[in-house]
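Hi C.,

You asked whether I'd gotten around to modeling the 132-residue construct. I have! Everything is below, sequence then structure, no commentary in between.
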Amino acid sequence: MDGTMKLTAVFEYDPTDRVWNAHAAENPRILTWARTLAKARAYLDEAASLWVEGGEEVEWAEEHFVLPDGGSTGELVAAARREREQAAAAAAHAQETQLEAVRRLRGLGLSLRDAANVLGLSHPRVASLTGR
């Protein structure tokens, strides 16, 4: 059966041993540990490959972090990640809106410099939006 198995990666920091314990929330057999988060991610990928069915690939749909302060830092980290994703989506939408505004302003006969001034953007930014 070819396909993709979507899993949730859980990373728990152990301050006593100064290691990251990692596992897949959906499959307790997929687990590992490492001294750095980057290595824990890599090792978790390897561990997952041992437990998936032939032809399947693992996709980490989510990551959760368990930190030793009872959850408040983990909640803050989750909020920061969510807000960064929202900001990236808003930035992409803003770029699309700016490009459409430039196209319409140029369609009215405005120069790139005038379109930039109307939008409150730099001339090079407007030029990059239009590919010039």
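If it helps when you're writing up: The chain has a mean pLDDT of 91.

Thanks,
B.
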